[in-house]
UniProtKB/TrEMBL annotation, chain A:
This is Pyruvate dehydrogenase E1 component alpha subunit. It comes from Virgibacillus chiguensis. Gene3D superfamilies: 3.40.50.970. Residues 12-308 form the Dehydrogenase E1 component domain. One of its GO terms (molecular function) is pyruvate dehydrogenase (acetyl-transferring) activity.
From TrEMBL, chain B:
This is Alpha-ketoacid dehydrogenase subunit beta. InterPro entries: THDP-binding, Transketo_C/PFOR_II, Transketolase-like_Pyr-bd, Transketolase_C. It comes from Virgibacillus dokdonensis. The keyword Cell division does not apply. Pfam families: Transket_pyr, Transketolase_C. The keyword Transcription does not apply. It comes from the Bacteria. GO terms for molecular function: oxidoreductase activity. Keywords: Oxidoreductase. PANTHER family: ACETOIN:2,6-DICHLOROPHENOLINDOPHENOL OXIDOREDUCTASE SUBUNIT BETA (PTHR43257:SF3), PYRUVATE DEHYDROGENASE E1 COMPONENT BETA SUBUNIT (PTHR43257). Residues 5-192 form the Transketolase-like pyrimidine-binding domain. CDD domains: TPP_PYR_E1-PDHc-beta_like (cd07036).
Amino acid sequence: MDKKMASWMFTKMNDIRNFENQVQKIFATGEIPGFVHLYAGEEAVAVGVCAHLENLDYITSTHRGHGHCIAKGCDLNGMMAEIFGKETGLCNGKGGSMHIADLEVGMLGANGIVGGGFPLAVGAGLSADILENGGVAVCFFGDGANNHGTFHEGINIAAALNLPVVFVAENNGFGEATPFEYATSAKTIADRAIAYDIPGVRVDGNDVTKVYEVAEEAIERARNGEGPTLIEAITYRTSGHFEGDNQAYKSESDKEKWPVEVDCIEQFKAYALENKLLSKTELEELEKASLKAVEEAVEFAHHSKVPNEEALTENVYVSYK
Amino acid sequence: MARKITFSKAINEAMDIAMERDNKVILIGEDVAGGATVDHLQDEEAWGGVFGVTKGLGNKFGRKRVIDMPIAEAGYMGASVAAAVTGLRPISELMFNDFIGSAMDEIMNQGAKIRYMFGGKAEVPLTIRTSHGAGAGAAAQHSQSLYGMLTAIPGLKVVVPSNPYDAKGLLLTAIEDNDMVAFFEDKTLYSMKGEVPEGYYTIPLGKAEIKRAGDDLTIVAIGKMVQVAESAANQLAKQNVEVEIIDPRSLSPLDEDTILQSVEKTGRLLIIDEANPRCNVATDISAMVVDKGFDFLDAPIKMVTAPHAPTPFATNLEQLYIPRAETVVRTVKDMIGELTLSR
């Protein structure tokens, strides 16, 4: 990893954290409609993987998708405006938090349906394979989704057809309010790769440098026509399933330990300093710039207009008056 | 005065009573208890459903009867179907009706077909409880009203309650029914309060309720749309227009007689349905009235529905998406004409 990459990763992780902190704060005031699922604490997974992706590569995401969007290069202003339901949002305010997409940067959509991303990533992989453009598709999914039928159907198709797809599980311990261990009859998600005869790798999902290494190998394999890999990144959901969740299913010790002792940003900061990738001053400057960028996104969203009424029935193929 | 409880609590009470009366009744779904196997909870539930509708049932009846499922709608819905066929009486919760996409084969090709395909030798006493409806800012994949899709399928009964009293009585009937019943709960009604008797009572399926009597025009309104109809009726009454409001309560079976008798009296029919306009329950009821009551009609039937579009996220657009009382008032006025208004 060079200085440029370290700087990119540190910025992206901070962007995600600051973005989610702002969303959490503003959601509590009632200004953001619907519900939001926050990614704070899991930044290392999205960033470590997307570090290897170009605009022509696609990712699919989940209901907890803000981090994937940011790591893949979605515009912060457009994202925040989308979450506010404004016309300037990446989906013109029609999708909201759970449906942020930007095909120009290869973001094939957050997704309100658990397990919705697997077949979509397979389709993006199929396009890349047939178009021979060197692209890969990455499917981010939560541990809850690994018990869904689409997980098995999607991975099997990708493996059977040897498609350039990388499946990245974010095992944050809980599917909604249910522990991973209760819902999943396997010791690990990575173990399930054996069933499809593809590599399955477990990685510390809070160490962005380790995610970076594992993802590099998997994405390289996919690009070289060697087929899919299943990566399981172990992390922790420091927030609730949604904002407002009582989180009664979490133990007090875990709640205290994870955001502080196992903070992926703090870990990477120490790593970057120790390996002389970034100086203390540089880190501080990047932190400040990130804070500013996110504050600007909030301002942008605040001052944007809501969509015109005509937008209600636009983009539906067919209209009936 | 009778006690008032929420729509959510009324549904909870119905399940509680059904589970007390019959130990074959079990509750299945995603986080219907929540926090399974978590040490510090010692088997106490963490959630009681994402909307809290099943709260307390896990603690009262235990995890053997209130069963959290992996996020695997096809898997547990199919299991619910066969559990019903083989001796249990499950209530299976589909968190959002939009997730029916993941479980449709089990509902449509398995559950709904079994009794008929097996020559009447099997019964499927399964109740599928699910939430529907826009208005919560939940966007395109969590806001649909898909009861019409299921109403189209033979082998299924479909219930859409509009208030707490009906919700409790209809759900108890649904659970006791020996056929598969899909029970749709508008998520924006969960906090609605209404008078609900304590204890056991049932409301038959296929029996509509006349919510308000009137001679000028009939409004059939589904689920939460009853409130929209009532608001419109209040405004219209000030202009001496008296509408009759009918809440069908169950869409399959459908109380055709009550609707037809009302249209015979008023000569005019407007239907309010929050679902998208093509092939929905409004078009279905409209076709039924044209077929069986054409001679009663003095004006074309009108429908007020959501537009032919997915549910938008932006609040201003979502408000336009949901049928509104002002649209109903305007439509009613068009239907009855100025003559009636000035009488």
